[in-house]
Structures are given as structure tokens and as C-alpha cells.
Amino acid sequence: MPEGLDAILSTAVLLLWGIPVVYFDLTRHRIPNFLTYSGMFAGLLIFLLFRRDQLLDFPVAFLIGFGVYYICYMFGWIGGGDVKLMAMVGLLGGKGFLAEVMLCSAVLGGLIALGVALVLLFRSRSPRGATIPYGTAIVAGIYLAIFAFPAGGLSP
Length: 156
What we know:
- The chain is an all-alpha fold.
- The protein has one domain (about 5-150).
- Helix content is about 75%, strand content about 0%.
- It contains five helices and no strands.
- The chain has helices at about 5-25, 35-50, 60-75, 80-120, 135-150.
- The longest helix has about 45 residues, at about 80-120.
- The protein is elongated.
- The chain starts with a helix and ends in an 8-residue tail after the last helix.
């Protein structure tokens, strides 16, 4: 599990914010700005209070998470809330944790897409144009990275 107050606070933010993100993503098909921006604000506070010496990890992870997912957003593959959510993950977790979450959420998102396609095919409907709740896959990737990896998720 995480070591240090900064890692505990970051883990708490990611776990607690994940619940309403999934709710809004599944019910309204969007992730509200107040969730992502407040999570980014919490990550910025944690960085300024505890991690100022790690300038090349957490702010760079924020930019990587935002940049990679913004490219996907430009192609229309994901929504803007997903981009901001992954930027928040980078700021709270750092580069190593961001890589774990990106990998986990890609695999879980693919499984969700496969499940949606199979359900639509069994209902004799075309899966073309169907959407999936990718924010939910990101949150599932966060939970998987925190609880399943031997490094303990957010440990530096």
C-alpha cells in the first residue's frame, strides 16, 4: 500500500472521486468538470505541499496523461471528461502509476467494448456507432492499479 501522507491523500482522492465519476458516466454519459477540476486542484495542493522536489514526475505525468488522451479526443474516440480524468490521474499518481492505469484502462475498455458489441449483436443490432463508458474503464483501471499491482499503486 502507499507510503507517506501524500500517497495516502492521493489514493483517497482517486478512490473517492472514482465513485461519482462512474455514476455520472453510466447515467449521464459525461464526467462533470467539478469532479475533474476538484481532483486536479487536490493533486496540485498535494504536489505543492509534499512533492515540490519531484517536478519531473507529477507535472510531467499530468502533461502526458492529458496529451495522449487529447489526441484520442481529437479523433473522436473518447470524450473531454476522459481527457481531464486521465490528466488528474497523472497529477495525483505520477508517471509510473499513470502508465499502469493507462494499460489497465485500455484492456478493460476493450473488454467493455467487446461486451457491448456482443450484446448488440445478440439483439440483432449493429455495434457500429455504439459508445462505451470509457470513464468507467479508467476508474476500474485506477482501482486495479491500486489494489492488484505488487508495487501498491501510488508508492514512489
